[in-house]
Amino acid sequence: MWKFIVRRLLITFPQIVLLSILIFLMSQFMPGDALTGMLDPNVDQSTIQEQRERMGLNDPWHIKYANWVSGLVQGDLGQSFRFKMDVSELISQRMENTLLLGIVTLIFTYLIAIPLGITSGRYNDTLLDQAITGYTYVGFATPLFIFGLVMLFIFGYQLGWFPTSGSVGPGMVPGTLDYWISKLKHVMLPALSMALIQTVSTVQYLRSEIVDTKQKDFIITARAKGASESRVYNRHIFRNSLLPIAAFIGWEITTLIVGTVFIEQIFGYPGMGLLFLESINMRDYSVVTALVLLFGIAQILGTLLSDIILSIVDPRIRIK
Amino acid sequence: MEIKNVQMEAAKAENPTALRILWREIFRDKLAFISLIFLVLVTATVYGISIILDQDEIVKVDLFAIHQPPNDEFILGTDYGGRDVFGQLIIGTRNSLTIGFLVTLMSGIIGIVFGLVSGYFGGHIDNAMMRILDFFNVLPFLMIVIVFVSLVPKYNTVTFSLIMTVFLWMGIARLIRSKALQEKELDYVQASRTLGSSHFKIIFKEVMPNITSLIVVTMTLNLAANIGIESGLSFLGFGLPESTPSLGTLLSYATNPQTLESRWWIWIPAAILILMLMLAVRNVGEALRRAADSRQRRG
Question: The complex's ipTM?
Answer without folding.
Answer: 0.81
